[in-house]
Design brief:
The chain is of the alpha+beta class. Helix content is 30%, strand content 13%. The protein has three helices and four strands. It has a four-stranded mixed sheet, with helices on both faces. The chain starts with a strand and ends in a 10-residue tail after the last helix. The structure holds glutathione (GSH). The site of glutathione has 13 residues, from α1 and α3. Glutathione binds at residues 6, 20, 26-28, 50-51, 71-73, 85-87.
Length: 105
Amino acid sequence: MKLYVCWGTFPVPWPRTSSSWRPGAHPCKKAYDALKRAGHCPEVVKVYGFAQLPDVTSGRQEVKRLTGESLVPVLVLEDGEAIKDSENIVAWARDNPAVGAGQMG
Ligand SMILES: N[C@@H](CCC(=O)N[C@@H](CS)C(=O)NCC(=O)O)C(=O)O
């Protein structure tokens, strides 16, 4: 699976006012962490740029082609299904743990 993210999956230390930008709630990190927690190991694709600007990077163009928007994070499953919005990705990870995830030994 591929996870398209902005510039990385680092935490953002600064508070923002909109709901998806609370401290520590960097949407791309949230999506990545949820997938890792569920035992997945997504290939992370950094798309760089900014959603509000023209899609100059190939990553942004691919995300736009897949979802109709250039906003990340976007998860692309092995069958090509694209899931956009970090909340949806977190929910998908919760509902689809990797085979063997959570088992010890
Ligand atoms: N509601 C969306 C918000 C996504 C969002 O805010 N993404 C950040 C990047 S992590 C952003 O700045 N997007 C604009 C951009 O991609 O330039 C979600 O939770 O996925």
